[in-house]
Amino acid sequence: MGKAHSNAYSKVNMFFDADAHVVRKAICGRDASGVSQAAKKLGWEHTETDWRKLASRGDVDVVDINAPSYLHKEMAIFAANEGKHIFCEKPLAFSTADAREIIDAANKNGVKHQIAFNFRFAPAVRVIRAMIESGRLGEIYHFRGHYLQDFIISPDFPKVWRLDKTVAGSGSLGDLGAHVIDLARYLVGDVKSVIGISKTFIKERPLPEGMTGLSGVASKDAPREAVDVDDATSFIGEFENGALLQIEATRFAAGNRNNLSFEINGSLGSVRFGIERICELEYYDAACDAGLQGFSTITVTEDIHPYAGHWWPAGHAYGYEHTLVHEIYEFVQSVANNNPTSPNFVDGMKCTQIMEAVDLSIERRAWVDVNSL
Amino acid sequence: MGKAHSNAYSKVNMFFDADAHVVRKAICGRDASGVSQAAKKLGWEHTETDWRKLASRGDVDVVDINAPSYLHKEMAIFAANEGKHIFCEKPLAFSTADAREIIDAANKNGVKHQIAFNFRFAPAVRVIRAMIESGRLGEIYHFRGHYLQDFIISPDFPKVWRLDKTVAGSGSLGDLGAHVIDLARYLVGDVKSVIGISKTFIKERPLPEGMTGLSGVASKDAPREAVDVDDATSFIGEFENGALLQIEATRFAAGNRNNLSFEINGSLGSVRFGIERICELEYYDAACDAGLQGFSTITVTEDIHPYAGHWWPAGHAYGYEHTLVHEIYEFVQSVANNNPTSPNFVDGMKCTQIMEAVDLSIERRAWVDVNSL
Amino acid sequence: MGKAHSNAYSKVNMFFDADAHVVRKAICGRDASGVSQAAKKLGWEHTETDWRKLASRGDVDVVDINAPSYLHKEMAIFAANEGKHIFCEKPLAFSTADAREIIDAANKNGVKHQIAFNFRFAPAVRVIRAMIESGRLGEIYHFRGHYLQDFIISPDFPKVWRLDKTVAGSGSLGDLGAHVIDLARYLVGDVKSVIGISKTFIKERPLPEGMTGLSGVASKDAPREAVDVDDATSFIGEFENGALLQIEATRFAAGNRNNLSFEINGSLGSVRFGIERICELEYYDAACDAGLQGFSTITVTEDIHPYAGHWWPAGHAYGYEHTLVHEIYEFVQSVANNNPTSPNFVDGMKCTQIMEAVDLSIERRAWVDVNSL
Amino acid sequence: MGKAHSNAYSKVNMFFDADAHVVRKAICGRDASGVSQAAKKLGWEHTETDWRKLASRGDVDVVDINAPSYLHKEMAIFAANEGKHIFCEKPLAFSTADAREIIDAANKNGVKHQIAFNFRFAPAVRVIRAMIESGRLGEIYHFRGHYLQDFIISPDFPKVWRLDKTVAGSGSLGDLGAHVIDLARYLVGDVKSVIGISKTFIKERPLPEGMTGLSGVASKDAPREAVDVDDATSFIGEFENGALLQIEATRFAAGNRNNLSFEINGSLGSVRFGIERICELEYYDAACDAGLQGFSTITVTEDIHPYAGHWWPAGHAYGYEHTLVHEIYEFVQSVANNNPTSPNFVDGMKCTQIMEAVDLSIERRAWVDVNSL
């Protein structure tokens, strides 16, 4: 993710007319030589090996938290107390209570805070949001979404940090489900109650010797350790506004490399979106002439589409990283102009709250009201 | 459905080498002139207006039950007692207990019985079943399916019999969900436990003056009556073999005319199927060469595919009604050769059992073990 | 094709309110026992082994010509002289001159004549035709279509009759291209001039011992014979109305089982259609709101769509053979009510004329005006 | 395109381990204030307003030619004579003769030269090339491709420079067709002969007052001027290796924003690719098990795929501009290591040669041998 964030900071001023000039001032890593190489490659002026020192630098206005999840809370509170504006990777925290502590620290210090729910910034998602707000889809009846991956499906895939509860906090639900939950909230509204089920299909995995990308290398005779996070989580629920919710997150859907998709059905129309075809949006308009109704595939790459005009001519694809550029551009604008950020840590907290409710519903085998947490 | 069944009986011998010659002997309807017209149009030799008389005719070996759902039980037991083999539309019955009574009557009388879960007979579904049985997909982790329609989405759509619990027994779950449930059972296995949620989005509807196809006509000032069936039902659960289950049935998914779709993920591959593209099957084979893996779209129309070779050359589409021809052909073969039928009333009962469990889970807001019913 | 035609005659009265009752009176085949079996299976009352006798029967009003192409001319003229209305498989004839002779015979005898360009009767094609006629697509700029198959791609596929010029008249152009040409004419208009190129990729093939479906069986040591028809033909041209034309027909497009597809672009919109997804139509409407424009996938299965309401509820697929039922229904109506037929032998002749122009353009390596033939 | 090129230079070292460090030394524009703003935004150190001065700078090793097409020749020869390595936008030149002059100048001065056929650097295109080279597709029979756009379809779209022959050299053929032609050559081989047809559907257009992106603004009463380039060009032909070629380029295909697509059919398999879904590749492998054959959709985003591993995890989309990053990375490597470049100006010349042959074939209404030019 360091690469994706660095790239985003380098693009903001090249592709947008931002009201502040972004300087990649300093990057932090545990290993001096490693971080030095990274700084050179990714275009950062200085390096630090102690994140507290970075967050205390006088020449830094904004801190971007991009460390393993279990460090988010400590880092965010420290940065807030140093008076830095904060851009934080998801999840904000491992519990609703922790999230509330972070928000308190940020509020107390009056710093801007934003959470990296970057898929909100896919142009197609913005178009959907505008459709729903303007009433184009009518009353919303259904949100059904899933995030399907398959990269750990082999029983020999090692127990990397993402499969370690202490470090990652959660498995498929926190890593993948969080994105779907945030999109559901962003587009349809707050969630009232949920009940879920989860599975850890592969109970033990070999310990890796090192990481490569999302994966790792484990020798043939590597000792095996119990996996303590969920391989898959599925849940149903209800929104505050009465719409039904169905969400599934899994790392065991063979052939689905990165299939975050959802469909929303309303009384006047429906939309479908999938992140693998990020430039496309499917839209059914019940108001079309009888006999000519159907889902249309909109290539969301025109000047008229949010953000798209800043890139290439119509029909020229953008990619995954562009969503992060858009989000960081908006964050920069909020900081520069002292405007509210969105999504902010409250959105991060509400997502955590829903995930906590799902976890609790699984533990208790009972429905859980989100607001009870 | 009378048209679809009549068509199927007329096709069995034309397209298959069945071991019995099917004669459309007699058709029954409440109205003498209506049934007479139907008989002429649909090719039946005789007519009856009393279904008991039809089921007692000496020149009839097989009774096809195609009446509103609430009549299935009485008709099936009567026909069984008359020693007739029975082909019954779904649902078999409104309760597991009723279904067991029917099965008992059939067994006592030694008659063949088959239930119209015709989507099992889509060539693509047969291919999937063979794949799973032969281990091509490996261990199964996920079944996620839905049946989405939108034909009653307008609040002015009248309260036709399908929206009347006394006649239809159930709403989206019984009408649509039943098909998905049966496919889940057929392909993945028996279901252990479920929990669901349902909604009736439009609480009152105008009373119709008459039916036209699936719809009806209601005058502007027609009195409105409460709808007592579900508009949408969503549930999650677990199979006996440990796989996860996610199913949704709704009549409020704008733009989805008849979208019965499912995806099954296994350790070695995945499949996707949707009834609107009935001739296609998507298959992901994890054993393909690295870098060349992906879901392939198989046009299930070749001689090598189940049933397909009886119709047209490769790539020439067949349609919905063909599934019923296939099923009735198999039923005719079972009757002619005194072989077991499949799916039979036990499959009908097991589907009802799952639906009952879902209903109970909604009522109690708690997980329900299917086998407890 | 005998099966497809028989099926169509058996369906006309079951699914449509035709103004005549169709009786499958007699079927003709060379072999008495074979034709007797066929009659039983396909539901014909009588058999003949001499086609002239069949075409002279007093109890026959309509003759359906479904024999190898080289016999069409002789049969059609004979039937016309016997005063029978004629439904003829494509191609009408091997040359424009032959086609004109047939038309003359039909006109002289005042019989109805129709040619089996059944894809005109796909509901989606009818919708497109209506769109163009009503001006929905505006001025037409482009027709690009192809018919891609792959069933003879193996060099060991035998030289069946379809690869024999004397019997089949033509290869990919006549068998496949003819359908695309007819659709181009039906939808966009008459063709002014063409130039093409063709290839016979596999020059020699083993002689088969017998036919099975479209294929045949050749022993390993079967003698090989030169193939004298085209494996693939591609051509470009111009319509009388100034639109551009691009058509390709090939039996060497691996993976394309039966891919007849076309796209039409007009000043106000575009359409795309492919026969493998016969129930679908893609439509781009330039009049949609800015930012929400895209090709929509219309499921052409609603009551409002031509023919579709006679079959199943919305979203329930029909197949290839339904196009022939629709065409034969229209033919029956024309005969019953003494109305003009469409497409008739003049359409058959005009298609042959274009194919002849393409062949000539290949031979001469020069543009050919269609009307010069 | 300046934005796309600048972006590419800024990314090479961030995402690849290039053997040279790219410095964006100087950018040239006609207007001092405009170019100064551009330099700041796009990250260039210095500015020039005279391209000759830029191309003569001692601190510049590589010149990137990104000016209107009519200037390419003069600039490229000048830069070559200054001993600069050259990266040139397509088209290299307006005629084969001009292209040859440029190549001579480059060769004489021993400079590296590369042409911006960036779609060659889409990972999917590299995969296809490797498939064909390794024999996976067998003998190639067909290349059918098109590049469809619709941005000038309105008769009120002004006559911008792209519609002016003096500046742009060509219309749809040179702008769009060139990309398809280059891909055809890259993947299948050199072209032997062609014949085409072209149209200018809108004969006159209003003169614009200024440009905005690809479009322009014309007042309601703007004078109209004749359009002297082609709106659409279609041609057929033959490769040296005997495969058939069919290509169409048009700006009048409503709904097609940027539809560059092609299909290649070989004796052992087929591939399909379209630039709007740049991360996907469809592949049909005739060697798959019988009954399970079909086009598979490969998401070309894995580590194993060319270039893809330098970006994001599997299933995370990249976009249009990435192809240019890949190409410029390769160019940098060639310059740094004194290796051959590809595609170079000879490829640019061969593309021009084919376009010239197409133009000539249209003028003469006769087949043209490409090598005769």
Structure commentary:
The structure is a homotetramer of 373-residue chains. With 373 residues, chain A is of the alpha+beta class. The first copy, chain A, is 33% helix and 24% strand. In chain A, strands 17-16-15-14-6-13-12-7-18 form a 9-stranded mixed sheet, with helices on one face. Chain A has a 3-stranded parallel sheet with strand order 3-4-5, with helices on both faces. In chain A, helix 5 packs antiparallel against helix 10 (345-364). Chain A starts with a helix and ends with a strand. Chains in contact: A-B, A-C, A-D, B-C, B-D, C-D. At the A-B interface, strand 6, strand 7, strand 12, strand 13 and strand 14 of A face strand 6, strand 7, strand 12, strand 13 and strand 14 of B.
